[in-house]
Each structure stands twice: as structure tokens, then as C-alpha cells.
Design a protein that fits this description.
The structure holds two protein chains of two kinds.
Chain A (H helix, E strand, L loop, with lengths): L13 E4 L5 E7 L4 H17 L3 E7 L9 H12 L4 H10 L6 H10 L4 H8 L2 H16 L7 E4 L2 E3 L5 H17 L2
Parallel strand pairs in A: 2-3
Antiparallel strand pairs in A: 1-3, 2-4, 4-5
Helix pairs in contact in A: 1-7, 2-3, 2-4, 2-5, 2-6
Chain B lengths: L11 E5 L2 E4 L7 E6 L6 H18 L3 E7 L3 H11 L5 E3 L6 H5 L3 E2 L4 E2 L2 E5 L5 E6 L9 H17 L1
Parallel strand pairs in B: 3-4, 4-5
Antiparallel strand pairs in B: 1-2, 3-8, 6-7, 8-9
Classes of the chains: A alpha+beta, B alpha/beta.
């Protein structure tokens, strides 16, 4: 129902790409959700296509009852963020969605060369869980009704989830922004 | 659909194969009535899976969620177990759709409840309602906004 991103993108968010880009794509995603897994290479394609015109933001929206590994995976990504490797963990998890047990996550931490002791201690830090829950609540308040849900420059995107549909929408948004100046 | 400000009509429906739930048993709590067309359908599953995760946000406002459809108590049991739902699903099964009709959210042509939401205050008065297009999951933001407003009003009245 709500179509507005609440709160707007801020310093707590994980941002990939040019932070001054005119286009802002926010995904509310669940690391265990298969549709989010399908969206992953699509987002990569979109980022290649739009380059410096786009920044991409990922917020957590784990549906814990149907995806029992989703919260731990989200915590692993947040723990990696504390070592400045959120996106490396985000990517490796979405490439390996079927293997999200604790030992798998630890293996990914090793693979992306995190300090393992630090990672294990951080993943149990309650402030990370609070961050994941705050992301979820912000999604609910913004009208997220499935995963993945996307917001473009603060407004909920209701179109198709294929690369060409998203790219078409983003490019038309871009020319709209440019013609406004 | 029943208007905001009206007393929600009482009803009693099966919540499990051997238990019934009466609306007036939920007095002292806010109640969210979520009418939906059918167990198992894709949009409903999204909606119920989402509400399952937002229960803790609802409970912060002393609110109880109940789902209502024309499916039988046995379908509800299987659906609820399959999706690990932690709130009751009521069977508006016999006479079919009686409660949905009472609330003005029954689709006669399809023989299903519409996708409709009601938020009741602690006295059972309807304080918010919303009819969603049948194929669209309305999310939970409207419910939370309504619960928040009710809490603000309760504080003002004290």
C-alpha cells in the first residue's frame, strides 16, 4: 500500500556503486529466497549496463519461518560488513543459496578472507540482529509485500523483475531526471 | 464493507478441527481481521507468510491477528502446518461465507471472501478497513499505521 521508502537511504545502508549516482535502486531481500537468487545476476547486469548512473542498496527482509537460514545468512553479511566485505559475503551467499548452514557461512568467511575469530564473535553480537530486524521493520513500513521488493529513487517499483524491464524503467527514469534540469 | 466506527458483529468459527473462536473472546485486545480468498493460492501464501513475520510488531500494539477464508478447518490445518503459521485461521465454511457476508466482503460470483482487512479497537469497534485488489498482497504497513494511531488515541484518553 505504502509506496515510499522509509527511512530513505542513509549511512547505515550498504551501498554499491557511485554514491552520487542519480539513480538509486534499493532491494529488500532474503538470502534464502529463490526469487532473490534469481534477481542476483539480473542486478549485476543492470549495474554493468548503468555504470556510474546507478547505486544499489541491499536491505534485509528475512522470512524466518519459511526460510530458516535467512537470518543467519543476513547476520553473516552484516558481520562481513564490519570488516568492509559486505558485498563479497552478499555475493557468495547468493551464489550458494542451497548451502547456508553455519559451517558453510564460516567457510565463505574464510573464502573472502575475513578474520575468522572476529567474524565468529561479531555474528553473535546482538546489535547485528537488531540491525537486521530494523531493516525488516523498515521494509514492512515501506509496504514490502514479497521478496525481492525494489524501490527506485524512494518509490516502490511494481513492474516486472526481468533485467530488460528493470533496465527500461531505470533508463526512462534517468532521462526524466535529466530533462528536468 | 462495514464502515469505520461500527461495532464489529460477533461471530464464532472453528479455529482448529476441535476448537472454536468467538470474536468477543478477544476483547481487551485490538484485533486484525484478515479476510482472504483461499488457502494455498500464491498471493495469499505471500500475505500470510508476511503476517507470520510481522506478528511481533502487531503484538507490540496488543493486537491479535486472525485470518478468515471459506476453506474448511482441515484445509486450514494443513495450510497452517505447511507454512508454520503462528496465528489462527478461521473457517467461514458452513454456512459458506456467512461472516464475510456479514462484513460486506464476500465475492458472490467467485464464492470466496475478498482480500479485506479490518482493525478493531479493544472494544470491538472497527477503526480501520481496507479492501485490496484480489491479486495484490496489501502488505502490513496500513495495519501498523492504524495500530499506531489507536495507541496514540488511547494515550490521549487516559
Amino acid at each position: 500500500m505504502s509506496t515510499l521508502l522509509k527511512p530513505p537511504v542513509n549511512s547505515n545502508d550498504h551501498i554499491r556503486g557511485n554514491s552520487n549516482a542519480p539513480l538509486e535502486l534499493v532491494e529488500y531481500g532474503d538470502f534464502e529466497c529463490s526469487d532473490c537468487g534469481r534477481a542476483y545476476p539480473i542486478i549485476k547486469t543492470i549495474q554493468r549496463e548503468l555504470g556510474d548512473d546507478l547505486k544499489f542498496i541491499f536491505r534485509n527482509f528475512p522470512l524466518t519461518e519459511i526460510h530458516p537460514h535467512a537470518v543467519n545468512a543476513a547476520l553473516a553479511a552484516e558481520a562481513a560488513a564490519l570488516q568492509n566485505k559486505f558485498w563479497e559475503m552478499h555475493d557468495i551467499i547468493l551464489q550458494n543459496q542451497k548451502s547456508l548452514e553455519s559451517e558453510d557461512l564460516l567457510f565463505y568467511a574464510e573464502t573472502i578472507k575475513l578474520d575468522p575469530g572476529q567474524f565468529i564473535s561479531d555474528i553473535q553480537d546482538s546489535s547485528l540482529l537488531a540491525k537486521v530486524e530494523a531493516d525488516f521493520e523498515s521494509g514492512v513500513r515501506s509496504g514490502v509485500n514479497r521478496t525481492p521488493s525494489f524501490f527506485v529513487n524512494g518509490l516502490k517499483y511494481e513492474g516486472g523483475r526481468e533485467a530488460n524491464e528493470l533496465i527500461y524503467y531505470l533508463k526512462s527514469k534517468l532521462s526524466e531526471l535529466r530533462s528536468a534540469f | 464493507m462495514l464502515a469505520i466506527g461500527t461495532q464489529a458483529p460477533d461471530f464464532e468459527l472453528n479455529s482448529t478441527p476441535d476448537q472454536k473462536l468467538k470474536l468477543t473472546e478477544l476483547r481487551e485486545k485490538k484485533v486484525i481481521l484478515a479476510f482472504y480468498p483461499a488457502d494455498w493460492s500464491p498471493v495469499c501464501s505471500d500475505q500470510m507468510a508476511l503476517y507470520n513475520e510481522t506478528l511481533k510488531l502487531f503484538s507490540k500494539h496488543n493486537a491479535q491477528l486472525v485470518g478468515i477464508s471459506v476453506d474448511s478447518k482441515w484445509s486450514h490445518l494443513a495450510f497452517s502446518e505447511s507454512r508454520k503459521l503462528h496465528f489462527p485461521l478461521l473457517a467461514d465454511f458452513e454456512p459458506k461465507g456467512q461472516v464475510a457476508k456479514l462484513y460486506g466482503v464476500y465475492d458472490e460470483k467467485e464464492g470466496l471472501a475478498q482480500r479485506a482487512l479490518f482493525v478493531l479497537d479493544e472494544k470491538g469497534i472497527i477503526r480501520w478497513n481496507y479492501l485490496s485488489p484480489v491479486g495484490i498482497n496489501p502488505g502490513a504497513d496500513g495495519i501498523l499505521d492504524a495500530l499506531e494511531s489507536l495507541d496514540k488515541v488511547n494515550v490521549l484518553q487516559k
